[in-house]
Amino acid sequence: MAAISEAKRSMILYTDLTPSNPEVDLGIDLLGFRPFPFAAYPVQVKGTTSGMKVWQQYALQPTVLLYVINPMSPDTETFVMTGEDAWKLPMRYVDAGGKASDFHAENLNHYRWPKITSRLSDMLHEHYLDDNETWTRVLDDIDRGHAQQRLTRRV
User: Of all residues in the chain, what percent are helix, strand and coil, respectively (each to 5)?
Assistant: First the structure.
């Protein structure tokens, strides 16, 4: 609940979107919407006090992903990215010299770091949520993903 409250707070502070809880669990935690011009964004929130997990399913559809680290602490940190950006983290981690022994071809739907290492923390800080620019970049990426899906469906 604390992680979702933090996600709602950041959405209100840094965007023109209104957070809304879906009435039915369809695999997302929040909807961020704007009535005029209408837009709606699926938002998945992940709160953690240790470690971090990424899922491929959030990369398959344009999804906003918020990671809230230590949501019950005064030292809360929030990171916002697309599901696709999150899913690329393990490969980027390996490319940067990190060990991701559990990331292999047989494990294609998720990856979990048992703790947030300094290398992972550095990578996450590219997505640190401290102003509206971070949200804007992610929402623009989501809009491009929706447009690409519409083009794909027409072909």
Answer: 40, 25, 35
36 three-state secondary structure: coil
Global pTM? Answer: 0.87
CA distances to 2, 10, 52, 132 from 74, in Å: 12, 15, 19, 21
Span 37-62, average pLDDT: 92
pLDDT of 150 over the 70 cut: no
DSSP state of 142: H
Contact between 53 and 60 under an 8 Å Cβ cutoff? The reply is: no
Average pLDDT over residues 41-65: 92
Contact call for residues 109 and 87 (beta carbons, < 8 A): no
By the 8 A CB rule, do 55 and 109 touch? yes
Sequence-separated (6 or more) residues with CB below 8 Å from residue 129: 10, 14, 66, 78, 79, 80, 135
